[in-house]
């Protein structure tokens, strides 16, 4: 049985739907799987199971070594930017002083030329002396306007005369920021968190992987659950237990340390893998055809 003609013709001035689909033309959508979602027990920087976990006030978890190296790198970068900004300010100040001195020297030179006849012309690094080195009183207008215009004229069609925009560095910030949430982060605002491991005999007999449970209800912690950490002692609970007990009794269920409602920090996670979580778990990639190539060129799609 012969195949359909609409899937084999290639003499049209446009692409058919089947040809576009085979070339990958248009927006391609793909549902993110479990491998694309960050688990709750991994570091936001190294994406590995954390060691000595630290948490910020927004609920982002990091390895202690990773976050300390990140903050130290940010401080060094701020110092480098501050040194460059200070050098730029010093250079601008020196250029302004030199320009003011040259302007005063030109005014004195023009005054001497008008009142005393021919005198040597003031010379600086931006002006050129004529072959005799003298300008009379009648040539003051030519020196002030025409030579200045010729000296400062820019030619966009000549590479050597193309004007260059000066690169100026803005005033740098001395603050350090969270690499995940982009909010200001200080070292003293970080606090260590402690997860409760599942040490039951049933778990030991089944698997050697480390799993964590809620110390109150003994439920295994997963990405499908909302987790809460106490900034006072660092113990992690499920949100149900935190709202039901600690928000009312205002005391930790493990160490009996006092806490307040503002000490309850909701931990961030990559997502649950379900649409009901409220996160955008769909990856999109837009492909357009190159002119005359017949191949699909990949271009990142706009975030929705």
Shape verdict: flat
Return residue spans where pLDDT drops below 50 for at least 5 consecutive residues.
122-141, 291-304
Going by helix content, strand content and strand pairing, the class is: alpha+beta
For the biggest sheet, the summary is:
3 strands, antiparallel
The total of beta strands comes to 13
Kindly report how far apart the N and C termini lie: 45 Å
Q: Order of strands in the sheet with the most strands? A: 1-12-13
Average pLDDT, rounded to a whole number, is 76
- Strand composition percent: 5-15%
- CA radius of gyration: 35 Å
Helix fraction bin: 25-40%
Give the SSE order as H and E letters: HEEEHEEHEEHEEEHEEE
Question: How many helical elements?
Answer: 5
Give the helix/strand layout.
Blueprint: H1 17-23, E1 26-31, E2 53-55, E3 61-63, H2 64-116, E4 119-120, E5 134-135, H3 140-152, E6 191-192, E7 196-197, H4 201-206, E8 212-213, E9 227-230, E10 236-238, H5 239-249, E11 264-266, E12 282-289, E13 296-300
Antiparallel strand pairs: 1-12, 2-3, 2-6, 4-5, 7-8, 9-10, 9-11, 12-13
Subcellular location: Nucleus
Keywords: Coiled coil, Metal-binding, Nucleus, Zinc, Zinc-finger
Organism: Cucumis sativus (Cucumber)
Describe this entry's structure for a reader.
Residues 122-141 and 291-304 have low confidence and may be disordered. The strands form 5 sheets. Strands 1-12-13 form a 3-stranded antiparallel beta sheet, with helices on one face. It has 5 helices and 13 strands. The protein has helices spanning 17-23, 64-116, 140-152, 201-206, 239-249, and strands spanning 26-31, 53-55, 61-63, 119-120, 134-135, 191-192, 196-197, 212-213, 227-230, 236-238, 264-266, 282-289, 296-300.
């Amino acid at each position: 049985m012969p195949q359909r003609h609409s899937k084999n013709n290639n003499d049209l001035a446009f692409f058919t739907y089947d040809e576009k689909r085979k070339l990958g033309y248009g927006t391609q959508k793909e549902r993110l799987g479990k491998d694309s979602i960050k688990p709750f027990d991994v570091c936001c920087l190294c994406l590995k199971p954390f060691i000595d976990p630290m948490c910020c006030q927004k609920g982002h978890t990091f390895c202690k070594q990773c976050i300390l190296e990140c903050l130290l790198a940010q401080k060094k970068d701020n110092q480098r930017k501050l040194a460059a900004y200070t050098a730029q300010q010093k250079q601008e100040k020196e250029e302004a002083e030199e320009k003011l001195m040259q302007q005063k020297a030109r005014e004195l030179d023009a005054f001497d030329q008008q009142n005393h006849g021919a005198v040597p012309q003031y010379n600086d690094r931006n002006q050129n002396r004529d072959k005799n080195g003298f300008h009379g009183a009648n040539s003051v207008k030519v020196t002030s306007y025409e030579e200045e215009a010729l000296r400062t004229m820019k030619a966009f069609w000549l590479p050597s005369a193309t004007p260059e925009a000066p690169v100026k560095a803005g005033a740098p910030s001395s603050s350090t920021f969270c690499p995940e949430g982009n909010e200001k982060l200080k070292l003293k605002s970080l606090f260590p968190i402690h997860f409760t491991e599942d040490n039951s005999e049933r778990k030991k007999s089944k698997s050697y992987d480390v799993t964590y449970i809620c110390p109150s209800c003994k439920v295994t912690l997963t990405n499908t659950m909302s987790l809460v950490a106490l900034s006072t002692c660092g113990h992690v609970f499920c949100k149900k237990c935190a709202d039901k007990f600690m928000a009312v009794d205002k005391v930790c269920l493990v160490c009996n340390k006092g806490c307040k409602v503002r000490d309850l920090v909701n931990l961030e996670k990559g997502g649950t893998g379900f649409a009901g979580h409220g996160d955008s778990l769909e990856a999109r990639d837009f492909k357009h055809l190159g002119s005359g190539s017949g191949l699909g060129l990949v271009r990142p799609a706009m975030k929705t």
